[in-house]
Specification:
With 232 residues, this protein is of the alpha/beta class. Helix content is 37%, strand content 26%. Strands 2-1-3-10-4 form a five-stranded mixed β-sheet, sandwiched between helices. A five-stranded mixed β-sheet has the order 7-6-8-5-9, with helices on both faces.
Amino acid sequence: MRLIALLLSATFALPAAALTFTTEEFPPFNFSPDGGKTVSGSATDILRDALKRTGLQASISLMPWERAYKMGLEDKDTCVYSTTRTEAREALFKWVGPLVDNNWIIFAKANSTLTGKSLDDVKQYKIGGYRGDAAALFLKEKNMKVEEADNDDQNVRKLEAGRIDLWIAGSLAGPWIAKKAGVQVKPLFTVKETQMYLACNKGLSDDVAKKLNDAIKAIRSDGTADKIYKSY
């Protein structure tokens, strides 16, 4: 009986299963500054703070976006970030956040003579987006001329080379990527105001989702999030 009691005690003492967070190279929100050894960025720092506050554990893995997104959809206790929350995705995940704001902007080269204040104004132009990204999917739904690349590093180089006319990217991510590539860009107009979240597999427990949501709400309200944003 004593052995059974000890076994039962050990069973109940087991820690909860660790979570898996998947992400992509998408600065300044999530990226690797050292070739994949570590993952940094404003969204990553907010999530690490949330894990610390809740006592939860999670591994963070950087990979191509389509693979990261697929794992979030299919694997229990797996979440993908930074994921734009859209109507089409709403029922696919349990949502934690928001982590960061990331409005969709149409960019042109800094010396471009192209103008426009709405999608109707730029319908005739070829716009670069990247495969599987919510912004690119949005443009395709609007029947825009979208040329997809594997990532935005390719898009900004294509913009510089004149292989695309315009580029849709995040309000913060676009300038960051362009500066890194040595390409000068200018914003033409905002396509949509959006926020990005941690999108969790539907199998994630409601209790874990609530703990993470409560922690992130506190991080955003106590000034910690603003300090993190400014550091990038």
